[in-house]
Amino acid sequence: MNHAEATRLAAESKCVLCHDTPCEPCHWPTHRGMGGAKAGWERREWVPLCRYHHTLIDGAQGASKAKEFERSLAIQIIREEGEDGVPRPGGGGT
């Protein structure tokens, strides 16, 4: 799978956190900011997230305590639930 295919699939999916659409493919459990520059686009390497949650998980909204708390909750939900009830490995931006 390449980036364009992952983007199309994510756009048709619901956000794993809020179930909103459209979505973007967010690298998970290792994103590029964690040194995952070689992170690929295979289905187990990303989760569909809406723009808000993608930005939140990537830590691009600053480091306020409120945002960091919200981010940690979102990460915990992804770790526990995964997509379609499939558990995913931990990690991702913590």
Outline the structure in words:
The chain has one domain. The longest helix has 17 residues. The C terminus is likely disordered. By secondary structure, it is mostly helical. Helix content is 35%, strand content 9%. The protein is built from 3 helices and 2 strands, in the order αββαα. A two-stranded antiparallel sheet has the order 1-2.
Can you lay out the helices and strands and say which pair or pack?
Elements: H1 3-11, E1 24-27, E2 46-49, H2 51-57, H3 65-81
Antiparallel strand pairs: 1-2
Briefly summarize what is shown:
With 94 residues, the chain is mostly helical. The chain has three helices and two strands, in the order αββαα.
The amount of helix comes to 25-40%
Counted beta strands = 2
- The span between the termini is 26 Å
Portion in strands: 5-15%
The figure for the number of domains is: 1
Largest sheet, in brief, is: 2 strands, antiparallel
The coarse overall form would be globular
Provide the low-confidence segments as ranges: 90-94
SSE class:
mainly alpha
Label this structure with key terms.
disordered C terminus, globular, 3 helices, 94 residues, two-stranded antiparallel sheet, mainly alpha
